[in-house]
Design goal:
The structure is a single chain. With 309 residues, the protein is mainly alpha-helical. Among the domains are: 11-101; 184-245 and 272-308. Helices cover 81% and strands 0% of the residues. It has helices at 11-15, 25-38, 44-49, 53-170, 175-247, 251-257, 272-282, 284-290, 299-308. The two termini are 116 Å apart. Residues 268-309 are annotated as: Disordered. Belongs to the FLX family. Keywords: Coiled coil, Developmental protein, Differentiation, Flowering. This is Protein FLX-like 1.
Length: 309
């Protein structure tokens, strides 16, 4: 609005008409007529230095018209600018309304989505409960079928018992003999129960003995492994001592150097495996106790011996 009546600095330059331009057609004709009437020569320098007042007035009128047209254009542009500002304000206001409406729609959509999600969770829980009830119903139906079959079976048995009872009543004269047979059967059943209990106790004691023997065998195997490790360490120390004696000979080494029976890398320790075999085969009771004369040398041998047993 402040630049409504303001012209740009180059507006007049673009529309400026030079003062030394050729005169218009009408004015040139008048000048020619005037020259023809008076026949007075006009000096060229005076014409060039002093432009004709009509030309100046025409130039001023042209500039005035251009200024008026520029003012009109500026006013139209200012009006257009104001209208565009109003349209922009209306568009911005509509955009705000649309944004607020979009936010409201989004919030409502989120609420609806949340409600739908909660409803789906509830429906899923209900479906699960319905599935559980259906499974229970199927189980109840199966139980009913089983009970029906059992009822039919018991009914058949009851009929057989009724027939047997009728036969027993008809044979009531043989009741003392039947009672004696029943007593005998009870006694046999009692004896069988006693034998079964005895067998159970015997089996339990045998199982405990077998477990104890297995534990003893495992402990013996661990002890044998420890003895082997100790023997290996002793052999290493003996070899180290022999190597040290070879580096620094002593009187004992000099005395043993001439002995042909004494080897350089030999060991005076007995073979643990041969000792273990001798110990296992020497005792007849030990071999009979563990089922064989050889003692297993590892967990796999013990498992094999236990499986073989």
């Amino acid at each position: 609005m402040a630049g409504r009546h303001h012209l740009p600095p180059n507006a007049l330059k673009r529309r400026e008409v030079p003062l030394t331009r050729a005169p218009l057609a009408g004015h040139s004709a008048l000048i020619e007529d005037h020259r023809g009437l008076h026949r007075v020569p006009i000096p060229p320098l005076a014409v060039a230095r002093r432009p004709h007042p009509a030309l100046i007035e025409e130039h001023i009128a042209v500039q005035h018209r251009e200024i008026q047209s520029l003012l009109l254009d500026n006013q139209r542009l200012a009006a257009t600018h104001v209208a565009l500002k109003q349209v922009l304000a209306v568009a911005q206001q509509e955009l705000r309304h649309l944004s607020a409406a979009a936010d409201e729609v989004k919030a409502e959509g989120d609420v609806q989505v949340r409600k739908v999600y909660e409803r789906s969770l509830k429906m899923e829980a209900e479906v699960r409960s319905i599935d559980a009830h259906n499974a229970e119903l199927v189980q109840v139906r199966e139980d009913i079928q089983k009970l029906t079959a059992a009822r039919q079976e018991h009914t058949a048995k009851l009929q057989v018992i009724d027939s047997d009872l009728a036969r027993a009543r008809s044979e009531s004269q043989k009741f003392p003999e039947i009672k004696a047979e029943i007593e005998t059967t009870h006694q046999e059943i009692q004896k069988g129960r006693t034998a079964v209990e005895y067998e159970k106790k015997t089996h339990a004691s045998n199982l405990e003995q077998a477990q104890g023997m297995e534990k003893n065998m495992i402990s013996m195997a661990h002890e044998i492994e420890k003895l082997r490790a100790e023997l290996a360490n002793a052999e290493k120390r003996a070899r180290a001592a022999a190597a040290a004696a070879a580096v620094t000979p002593s009187a004992g080494y000099a005395a043993g150097y001439g002995n042909p029976e004494m080897g350089y890398g030999g060991s005076s320790y007995p073979d643990p495996f041969s000792m273990h075999q001798v110990q296992g085969g020497g005792g007849g009771d030990a071999g009979s106790q563990y089922g064989s004369g050889a003692v297993p040398h590892g967990p796999r041998d013990m498992q094999r011996a236990y499986i073989h047993r």
